[in-house]
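Task 17 of the worksheet. Students: predict the tertiary structure of the chain below and write it out as structure tokens. Keep your answer in the requested format; marks are given for formatting as well as content.
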Amino acid sequence: MSFSDKFRSQPFDKKRLEAFSDGVFAIVMTLLVLELKLPHIADPSDPHKVWAAIVEVMPVFFSWVVSFFFVALIWLHHHSILKMSTASDYGTMWINTFLLFFICLLPFPTKMMGEYPMSPIIVMIWGLMFSAATFMVTWFYYYNVKHYLSPAYDKKQTMKNVRFSVFGGPTIYTIAALLAFVSVYVSYVIYALVPLLYILPLDKEMEGAKQP
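Model answer:
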């Protein structure tokens, strides 16, 4: 028995894996919003000072918005993948654990980006964290499609969608992260736009679903 087969030979409760993951996603999304703090305003009755405080906190707000919806979309994909799967094993569990590892790390670079929005290396780290998380969710997708895809779906078509995912999120986020040394604004635009590609993650999978 190969090393990978040993993981597959040990079943793991899919409902428990999903319930635990949902809890982690919820906690991370809550932690992200805790970074939204308005700076002290000496004279709240002065609209100029209020506006200056709001402008000062805008990088933090932007980083929160992008990270929040990024985590929300990862959670949506995670839910969809498990819905397409018939079972899970220890391989599924460990891939899922590494995915949650990068999701839990996300508040740290998000906070750094909010405080130092013009630092190319910090903007790059933020993007690489996105890339790592999307890579793990793509691996999670691949593993489940390869071993546990429901008969209701066409495996060949779904595997095409897996390959698209590999060259989608992880690749684009990595390129955007490296572009931070050219222009942090270019990186910001890409970070904000990539999630739009994944708003409806079930579209392509449902096209390949077999009719009962």
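Marker's comment: The chain is about 75% helix and 0% strand. The radius of gyration is 20 Å.
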